[in-house]
Amino acid sequence: MAINTDSVLVSHEEIVQMLDRVSAQINHDYEGKSLVVIGILTGAFIFTADLVRRLEVPVIVDFMQVSSYQGEFSTGLLKIKKDLSYDIKDKDVLIVEDIVDTGRTLALLKEQLYKREPKSLKICTAFDKPSRRVTDLKPDYNGITIPDEFIVGYGLDLDGMYRDFADVRIVRKE
Ligand code: IMP
Ligand code: MG
Predict the structure, then answer these.
(1) Which residues belong to the active site?
(2) Is the pLDDT reported for residue 85 higher than 70?
(3) Are 82 and 65 in contact (CB under 8 A)?
(4) Distance, CA of 106 to CA of 46 (rounded, Å)
(5) SS3 label, residue 163
(6) Which 3 state secondary structure label does DSSP give 113?
(7) What is the largest CA-CA distance in the chain?
(8) Residue 106 is inside which H or E element, if any?
């Protein structure tokens, strides 16, 4: 089966506009504060890098690598492959994700991070696929809402490939 990535869903220009809009909202909401930004590896590495360079508040950048899997409980389980390097107690924390799909990963991550008693905890995602949601998770900052398609580029991968595309493309299997 061949993989076709010719179909561009979001152009690089649209991504830049999205970055300007989302960073302006964050700069407005956190004015006078400082932020701990948690990029979720690996998919959010490019979005995190682009976003933090547009922030005007003092920022600590950290990363986590997590995955969710279905356990015997319906809520699922969270596996932390790489944990934070900083303590987030009493900090304003912003989780930066590449895409929210079912919402399972972020719902579980939020639950875990709340136990560490941050002052606030919000979610910013580059892309949102609300049609596939199985939780009530709603990102506080959403870049671009996309249809129910599997996308790659701008950090998002298929089996580790295509993260380097500057635009976002739909994967078609032929
Ligand atoms: P969720 O737990 O179902 O919300 O899925 C979260 C993870 O699945 C995301 O952080 C992505 O890594 C991956 N994912 C979901 N949809 C896509 C897609 O269209 N392209 C690439 N990765 C995706
Ligand atoms: Mg991810």
Answers:
(1) 101
(2) yes
(3) yes
(4) 18
(5) coil
(6) helix
(7) 53
(8) helix 104-114
Stated pTM of the model: 0.96
Contact between residue 131 and residue 112 where contact means Cβ atoms under 8 Å apart: no
pLDDT of 72 reads 63
Q: Between these two residues, 71 and 120, which has the higher pLDDT value?
A: 120
Pocket probe for ligand 1: among 156, 165, 170, 172, the residue whose CB has the most ligand atoms within 8 Å is 156
CB atoms within 10 A of CB 140: 15
pLDDT, tens digit (0-9, with 9 covering 90-100), for 13-53: 999 999 999 999 999 999 999 999 999 999 999 999 999 99
The H-or-E segment that residue 66 falls in is strand 59-69
Distance between alpha carbon 89 and the CA centroid of its chain, in Å? 21
Residues 166 and 154: beta-carbon distance below 8 Å: yes
Length of the chain: 174
- Ligand 1: residue whose CA is nearest its atom 16: 101
Mean pLDDT of the chain: 95
3-state secondary structure 115-128: CCCCCEEEEEEEEE
Q: Is beta strand 120-128 parallel, antiparallel or unpaired with respect to 92-100?
A: parallel
